[in-house]
Amino acid sequence: MHPVFRKQFNAAFTPEKYQALLQTMNTEFGEPVTFRVAEAPVFVPKFLKDKILRAVDDIVAVLTRPDFRTLSKDAIPKHLWVPNEAVHPKFLQFDFGICRDADGSLTPQLIELQGFPSLYFYQHLLAQGYRRHFDLPEDFHHLFGGIDSEQYLDLLRQVIIADAKPENVILLEVEPEKQNTRIDFWGTRKYLGLKVLCLSKVKRSGRELYYIDDEGRKVPIQRMYNRVIFDELEKRADLPREWDMFEEVDAEWVGHPNWFFRISKHTLPLLKSEFVPETHFLSELKSPPADLENWVLKPLYSFSGQGVKVNVTREDLETIEEPSNFILQRKVEYISGIETVIPNEPAKCEIRMMMLWEPDWEKPVLVNNLIRISKGEMVGVRYNMGKEWVGSSVGFFEP
């Protein structure tokens, strides 16, 4: 990444500074982080930032097309369709692998996208933690559009809470206290004052939803900040519930569940850009590509990297019973472009661009970013066990 500031950071790094960062991350939201925090942020040079912003614009141009809802209607499994769909998602995430272009320069390549929330509060704390404990360039920022910390939190409050009282807004999850990303739930609660609630605790009376607070009061639910992933929910037949999310109620979705499917791997074949690897629905290919070794097989309805086949064979394709539920995406090679120390082994990264989209906004607004640093074959916890200078990070972008 940015060679000058990277060298300066590495030269000034000490284990004591890193431990101070971890102390902040493990105490600020009331519980330790359950995943690995990387030793360093990523300094993104201006030329790469400009490419990423162009890539974001290319994708947004498709998502804002008047016919996008028609194009994405088959993305939602019929048994998971939820009523009262919003005109567009409240939250958007674009994940880019950082690769090498034909001319040798760094370039982003879209790996996945989601019409779903991400770690908006955790990432902000992480950026503040790096800023507090390390000497970072003042004019490099993790937020976009010229907003400062206060404006960022105000935007999130506007999108999630709106005009409701915080106690009438819930963050909805399945057993939130057991989720690996729960640190972000506690951050959301700290800054917004909402109620973090398991679906099993949601009560229903006709079209009204409510919960019972710690004092035994019946508290109406007006808005639901949805963090439930149906892939997990479908595996939880044991979870008691008075409301199954598919019946019409008077509470408003903050991040409607249908957009989790509409903007997902299902969207990739619709995107044509130098920053999007060629992608096809498996069902629309008359025959497999001749260079199958250069393609990745991905199931549409499995998440967190589950079911992805990197080394695809013709036999794999022939045994698939429902090819309409799979895509083939051209492989990209992440570049190990991040210098690290202890040990001195370069790392690769994936950058998530995090957006918000209010109903009266013409298009989504980019606000923050998330970075995962890896030294393994792929980006993910199981590929980086026992490694250092990997894990959760954030980008500071050159102006």
Keywords:
399 residues; 24% helix; Rossmann fold; 3 domains; 17 strands; alpha/beta; single chain; four-stranded parallel β-sheet; five-stranded antiparallel β-sheet
Radius of gyration: 21 Å
Low-confidence stretches: none
Question: Assembly state here?
Answer: single chain
Spatial arrangement of strands, main beta sheet = 3-2-14-15-16
Rounded mean pLDDT score = 95
Question: What is the H/E string?
Answer: HHEHHEEHHEHEEEEEHEHEEHEEEEE
Helix content: 10-25%
End-to-end Cα distance, whole Å, is 14 Å
How many beta-strand elements? 17
Give the overall shape.
globular
Strand residues, percent: 15-25%
Estimate nothing, just give the exact number of structural domains: 3
Major pleated sheet: 5 strands, antiparallel
Number of helices: 10
Structural category: alpha/beta
Textual characterization of the structure:
By secondary structure, this protein is of the alpha/beta class. The chain folds into 3 domains: 1-150 and 335-399, no CATH class; 161-254, Rossmann fold, CATH 3.40.50; 278-331, no CATH class. Helices cover 24% and strands 22% of the residues. The chain is built from 10 helices and 17 strands. It has helices spanning 3-12, 15-27, 46-63, 68-71, 120-133, 149-160, 182-192, 230-233, 258-262, 314-318, and strands at 42-44, 91-100, 106-114, 169-173, 195-198, 203-205, 208-212, 218-220, 223-226, 252-254, 279-281, 295-299, 326-330, 348-356, 365-374, 391-393, 395-397. The strands form 5 sheets. It has a 5-stranded antiparallel β-sheet. It has a 4-stranded parallel β-sheet with strand order 5-4-9-10, with helices on one face. Strands 6-7-8 form a 3-stranded antiparallel β-sheet, with no helix packed on it. A hairpin with a 2-residue loop joins β6 (203-205) and β7. α2 (15-27) packs antiparallel against α5 and α5 (120-133) packs across α7. The mean pLDDT is 95.
